[in-house]
Amino acid sequence: MSSTRDIDNLIEMMAKLPGLGPRSARRAVLHLIRKRALLLTPLSDLMQTVAATARECLNCGNVGTEDVCDICTSEKRANGELCVVEDVADLWAMERSGVFKGRYHVLGGTLSALDAIGPQELRIPRLIDRVATEAINEVILALNATIDGQTTAHYIADQLDGQVTLTSLAQGVPIGGELDYLDDGTITAAMRARKSL
């Protein structure tokens, strides 16, 4: 089987991607090989380019190809609203809905005593600095409706109490739900009905 070692390694790597198991990875790799010129070669080139150029925004934590992302540099987005999310997938889900027109702050996870993740392991100190130095009127806590998400929201609310208006997403985001798995309509309804903490 040594003649297929590279292909087997590619299948193993693909199987590590979210949503793909060994069987799905095998089908995907076979499809890529069959469509080598149309898919595999351009995909390989794009992956090399992204590997070389992708970086986290120094301001908010979004992923892009510049040190500061397009959302942070857009003057149109400087409306005083800052939406706090757990990770980049949540930011992208909010952007897909098209309902939020302000700027974001990606925490990089949630507080978790069991996993020894405290405020310093997240971008919470940077969030507090941004609220103090940028013209922010409202912080919208768009964290996942999990125990860790709610714990993190309460911690941030305590840290920013009296400095800025604090709101969170309204009902509609199910308990235990994650933003990345919600449809655009649910995100839009939850964003429009956000409430004070």
3D structure, described in words:
- The chain is α/β, with parallel strands linked by helices and 197 residues long.
- Helices cover 45% and strands 12% of the residues.
- It contains eight helices and seven strands; from the N terminus they run H-H-H-E-E-H-E-H-E-H-E-H-E-H-E.
- A five-stranded mixed sheet has the order 4-3-5-6-7. Strands 1-2 form a two-stranded antiparallel ribbon.
- The chain starts with a helix and ends with a strand.
- The mean pLDDT is 91.
Distance between the terminal alpha carbons, to the nearest Å? 60 Å
- How many β-strands, per DSSP? 7
**Radius of gyration using CA atoms only:** 20 Å
Q: Structural class from helices and strands? A: alpha/beta
Q: Report on the biggest sheet.
A: 5 strands, mixed
Helix content: 40-55%
List the helices and strands in order. Answer: HHHEEHEHEHEHEHE
- Outline the low-pLDDT stretches: none
**So what's the overall shape?**
elongated
* Total DSSP helices: 8
Output mean pLDDT.
91
Strand order of the largest sheet: 4-3-5-6-7
Strand content: 5-15%
